[in-house]
Every structure is written in C-alpha cells, then in structure tokens.
Design goal:
heterodimer, A: six-stranded mixed beta sheet, five-stranded mixed beta sheet, about 25% helix, B: mainly alpha, about 70% helix
Chain lengths: ~425, ~290
C-alpha cells in the first residue's frame, strides 16, 4: 500500500531561554546586551536547550489509523505541530502525500461577534475547506451540531455546550485524505464525546489516513490499528495498538488514571510501599475523565511493612500546566500513631467544582514528618492523571462562558447580591 | 463540460489534490515568497478580510458612518485650527480640499500600518493552531481599511463638486498607482513590525507616536512644493510625501510633483516592502514557538 506519511529523523530543539522569556520588551533585551558588553562578555551565551523531539522516524500507510501516545512533554504535540506545519523541525524531514486536514483544537478562529453560520464559513476555511464545499455541507453541519434555531445568532450568546458542538461539527465535516488530530475528544459532555468518537470511527473506516494524539487510552485501542509510543522525544514503541497501550500503562511512562505495582516492585522503602493508585468516581468506579461538577476520588493503596514512625499518605495535585494546585495529606486520626503492618486503602475526595478543566496529574507519596521537611518513604511523581471536564451546561463556575478560564482551581462560590 | 469534469474528479478516489505532496523540512536560511501557495490560499485571505470588515461594522452602532465621520472631523480640526491660525505656506488648492485629500491616503496608511503590525499577535489563536501562510494576516490587515477609504473618497468627491476642483485630464489614471505605493509601504512596515511584535511587545506603544507625527512629515496639511527645497528633499525620503503629492496631482490637478523626489519616495517604499517581507519570512518559522 502507498505511504501517506513519511517521517525521517525529525528533531526539534527549543532554546529554553527563548522559551522562558517568550516575549519581553526591547528594554530587557537592550539591558541584557548592555550588561554583557559592560562585563566584556563577547562570547555568545548558549541558552539551555531542550530537544522536544529526537530522531523520530516512522511511516504511515494510506488508510491507516495511527495513534500517538506518551506522557506530557514526550513530544506528541511537537510532532503534530511539525506535521501540521505550525512550526518547523530543527533537522530531519517529513513528507505527506495527499490533502491534509489538521485539528489541534476545535473552533479555531471562531469569532464571538459573528453568527453561527458566519463562523461555520470562517472556521471551515481556516481548516482548509473551500467556500463552495462549506456551502454544500452547511445543512449537515448545522444538523450535526443541533443548533438550527440559533444559526443566525452571534456565537457569544451560545451556551458553551452549543459552542463546542458547533465547533466540532465543522471539524467533523472536514474531508481531507489525511487527518491529523490532537486531543479534540477531551471536550463536551460524555454523550457528545461518544458521538465524536463515532465520527472518528467513520472517518477511519472510510479509508482515510488518520494520525491521532490522545490521552484517552480507550479511544486509542478502539480507533487505532497501530500506536506509536513517544518518550523523551523518541519513539520507544511502535506496533499493534492494544499491545503498545498495555505496555505504556504498565511501564510507568503512563499518566493514565490507574497505576498498579507488584507487591515487590512498587516504589517504597522498608517501611511502606505503594501498591496502586486509581482515580475513581463516587461509586468507586475507575474513571479517566471527571465531570467538574462531581467529586473525584484519588484512591491510594499501600502496604505498611513494619511498625515504625507515624506515616500518612500525601498527595500533590498539579494542574494542566504542571503548576501545583494544592498539597494535601490524610489527616485521619489513625495516622497519628504508628500504623500496624498490613494493607491500607486511603481515598481522598476532591470536592466537586474545585479543580479547573484539563489534564490534572497527581504526585503520590507515603510520608512521615521529618525535620525540616517531610520524609517520603514511598513516592511516585505523576502517579496518575485524569481529565477534568466541563460539560458546559452552564451550572459550573464558568456559567455560560466557554472561552479560556485560567487558574489552578475554579470553585463555585456563594455570591450575595444586594441592590445598593 | 469543464464543470462536469471537475465534479467527477472530486468524487473519484483520487481527487486532484491527492497528488499534492507536502514536504516538511527545517526552515531555509533564505526567505522566499511562495506565490503559488499564496494563490492556493486566496480564499482564506478573502475570509480574513470579510471577517474583519464584518466584525468592525457589526460592533459599532452607526457602523459605516464612522468611516465618514472620522476623516471629516479630523479634517475639520486641522482646517479650522491650522487653516486659521498657523502660518502655512500658501497652496494652489482650496485648503479644505488640500487637507481632506491628503488625509484620506494618510488615514488609510496609518490604519493599515497599525492593523498589520498587530495582526500576528492578534491572530495568536490561529498562528499556534493551524497552518496557513502567515503573510495572509498582515496582508489582510492592509486590505480591510480600503473599505473606509472608499467611503471617505465619496466625501472627497462631494467636496470636489462643492469647490469645483476637477482632475486635470488623463493623469487621473495614475491616481491608483500612488495609492498602491501607500499599500506596499504600509504592508512592508507592517510585515516588519508584526514580526518584531511577536518578540517585543513594544510595538503597540511606538506606533501611536509615529502615527501622530507622520501627517506633519508627509505634506498632509500643506503643499510640499511651497516649502524650502532642502526640506522637500528631507520629506522626500518619506514615501507618503510622494503618495500624497502625486495623488493630489493626479486627482485634483494639484501642482506637478518633482520627478526625482517622487522616484526617491517610491524607491524607499520598495526597499521597505522588500526588507519587511524578507524579515518577516525569515522570522516566520519561529512565530508559533515564540508566541
């Protein structure tokens, strides 16, 4: 079969200095240059580098549906950004044969002041559709999104659910020969996500080539024939999807919503050892994604091996940017005294409407109080990760607004209103 | 027949574009402009322009009226204050016509320049999420203000009728040429500044200063032929001087511009355009990483 995508030795270097001070003012740059001049430093200061991708090579045959997985920072998004030509590689080359459609986000370029209809044309042509093509598909798009009544209303008056549905609907009607997709399924309510998955399946079944980046392992095994696992910017595994996904989840590379260790090999010392960490819903079922309006449990199972100093489970919850949202320890009375050896399961319940949307990861440890710092006996960074999602029904703290919402947390607060 | 064939090829398993091979490689050291690619993306350029025009007139209550009111009020202020109190060189054209005809290309130029300089940063959501030739953003931003220019031009026609100032003959065909020079100058500087703005967000502060001084250096408020020759040469380095003088000459039968000084202005415009384009193209591959 013909090759649709050829990637040969692709690498991408970011200069961290440039990255950190992504933009500054001219004054800062001038000040820096002056300081260097004054100190007589003539040599070029090499900024620290980061290779987001290193020598990545693979081929995708026409009609294949290939998934790309890996933990945050493994290079998945960089790879996709290079293949979609948003950024250029530092070395290497890639060749794509056929009309490319890329989807790194739904609703790219949507303008709040424009109506639904106008935005369909705007977004469609940004995604590479011809006006005529959009016009013929208009009814289908509107139908799929279910926004007939509001099609001539500015999208700023849409509920966030409607907005996302319309945005996805345009994207879903893109008919390229090669589709590059990033994590678009992490939007909308579960019903809508199911429809999106269905649509992706149709696209795959129709013989188009799809390259698909996601954290959703279920979707991966369901949609893809083949999965490429990236870590540290390199291809570490490439093969049949369920095998690669399984290896990924066991390898500890994964930021899946569950982690399990053998009794002997789990992280820990002679006092305590981790057995498993899971993200669960209120009924104790394991979940990958949590509705922002429901509480989420982080279940830590561990073994106390001997009687020692008092220990307790501790969690560090990080938001989608990797910033610490909060630290928390199990304050149950039981942990005030040394625990008797045995197996324990401790579940921390994160209240509904606390975390912001996006991929949330959790560092897990079993600690004792040392001086001056906590002493970790068993610790695992990024033990688990899960998506916090807002179905966009208007009853969360963002109300009807669907745009960017910053902050590590987004609690729903009580407001008192008085007419002054 | 042709239409039928096109439809057929679209439906078949091998649409014409499947032969399209996209090669991705490290950005080349030497910037070049891929004109065939720009042609391929012409519809998107149209969409950007259409969006900006639509949004602009949709958000304001009196919409199009602003396109007329802004130049009229600005001109009125200049005419009343400068025409009455400042000792400006005498001009052959009636002062209101002189000012208004100068102000139109000037306002086109400044809004194009401002718009295009901001275009890449304003389009951050697009630039970091989808590929298209980035040139489309500043290019679209210098096309959008043409709409305002057209409305202002209608007012100018009315003024011309009122004062009985008419074109002197066939030279009127040169009028669009001078506007085209304003276009490429604005685009050139806009390309340069939009690329600079990605890295240094000083640009939005610098532009208003520049824009306020510019009318005084371009002969908007006076006839450059009536100032000392030394100054005329200095102002000639500003392409907008050549644009405004030439435009008045072609459209209003104003004084004939000096050929050498006009050529100088055009040459500067060309240099700005090519320089701006080269700078833009060479920094373009890093936009998405820096933004």
């Amino acid at each position: 079969m013909a090759t649709a995508i050829t990637v040969e030795g692709l690498a991408k270097r970011y200069r961290l200095g440039q990255y950190r001070a992504a933009y500054g003012t001219l004054r800062d740059s001038l000040a820096l240059a002056t300081r260097r001049l004054a100190r007589g430093e003539h040599e070029h200061h090499e900024d620290p580098e980061l290779w987001a991708l290193k020598d990545v090579s693979f081929e995708v045959a026409e009609g294949d549906v290939v998934g790309i997985i890996g933990r945050n920072g493994a290079g998945k998004s960089t790879l996709l950004k290079i293949l979609t030509r948003i950024t250029t590689p530092t070395t290497g080359r890639a060749e794509i044969r056929g009309r490319v459609g890329s989807l790194l986000e739904v609703g790219t370029g949507f303008h709040p002041e424009l109506t639904g209809r106008e935005n369909i044309f705007l977004n469609g042509s940004i995604l590479g559709m011809k006006r005529r093509e959009i016009a013929t598909k208009l009814d289908e798009i509107v139908d799929f999104a279910g926004v007939e009544k509001f099609i001539d209303t500015p999208v700023k008056r849409y509920s966030s659910g409607m907005y996302v549905r319309l945005a996805f609907s345009v994207a879903a009607h893109l008919e390229p020969e090669i589709l590059l997709v990033d994590e678009v399924l992490a939007v909308g309510d579960s019903e809508f996500q199911r429809r999106c998955l269905g649509r992706m399946e149709d696209i795959g079944a129709s013989g188009r080539t799809v390259l698909f980046v996601s954290h959703n392992m279920q979707a991966m095994t369901r949609l893809c024939d083949r999965v490429i696992l990236l870590d540290g910017g390199q291809v570490v595994e490439d093969g049949e999807s369920s095998a690669v996904v399984a290896r990924y989840l066991q390898s500890g590379l994964g930021t899946g919503s569950t982690r399990r260790w053998d009794r002997e090999s789990g992280p820990g010392d002679d006092l305590a050892r981790l057995r498993s960490v899971r993200i669960v819903d209120e009924h104790g079922r394991q979940i990958d994604a949590a509705d922002v309006r429901q509480r989420v449990g982080i279940e830590v199972a561990f073994t106390v091996l001997r009687l020692g100093e008092p220990i307790f489970p501790k969690l560090k919850v990080l938001d989608r940017h990797g910033a610490v949202a909060f630290n928390v320890m199990d304050t149950d009375q039981r942990w005030r005294t040394p625990a008797t050896p045995g197996d324990y399961v401790s579940t921390a319940w994160i209240p509904a409407n606390l975390l912001n949307e996006g991929l949330t990861s959790v560092d897990v440890s079993i600690c004792s109080i040392g001086t001056p710092k906590l002493h970790p006996h068993a610790a695992e960074r990024s033990a688990v990760a899960f998506h916090v999602q807002d179905p966009g029904l208007g009853d969360s703290s963002r109300g009807e607004y669907s745009g960017q919402w910053t902050g590590a947390v987004r609690p729903l607060l009580d407001w008192t209103v008085e007419r002054a | 027949m042709a239409a039928g064939a096109e439809q057929l090829s679209e439906r078949s398993a091998q649409p014409p574009e499947s032969s399209r091979v996209t090669v991705i490689r490290p950005s080349s050291r030497w910037p070049r402009l891929d004109v065939s690619e720009l042609w391929h993306y012409r519809e998107l350029l149209g969409t950007f322009v259409w969006r900006d025009i639509k949004v602009r007139y949709k958000q304001s209550a009196i919409g199009v009226a602003w396109a007329v009111l802004v130049p009229v009020f600005t001109a009125a202020v200049y005419i009343v204050i400068l025409g009455r109190f400042a000792k400006l060189p005498r001009a052959t054209l009636p002062y209101p016509i002189l000012v208004f005809s100068g102000l139109l290309p000037m306002q086109y130029f400044t809004s194009s320049l401002t718009g295009s300089s901001m275009s890449i940063v304003a389009g951050v959501n697009l630039v970091t999420k989808v590929y298209f030739p980035r040139v489309l953003l500043p290019l679209g931003a210098v096309i959008v203000p043409i709409v305002d220019f057209v409305f202002g031009f209608i007012v100018l026609l009315v003024l011309m009728g009122w004062y009985g100032t008419w074109p002197g003959g066939p030279v009127i065909v040169l009028a669009p040429l001078f506007l085209a020079v304003a276009f490429i100058t604005a685009l050139g500087i806009g390309l340069f500044l939009s690329a600079v703005n990605v890295r240094y967000r000083d640009v939005p502060y610098a532009i208003p200063v520049f824009v306020q001084v510019l009318p005084f250096l371009s002969g908007v408020l006076f006839d450059v032929n009536h100032i000392r020759e030394k100054w005329q040469w200095i102002l000639a380095f500003n392409p907008m001087t050549a644009v405004i003088t030439g435009w008045r000459w072609a459209l209003l039968n104003g004084p004939t511009p000096n050929l050498a000084r006009t050529a100088l202005g055009f040459a500067v415009a060309l240099v700005l355009f090519l320089g701006g384009l080269a700078f833009f193209r060479s920094t373009e591959p890093r936009f998405a990483d820096t933004l």
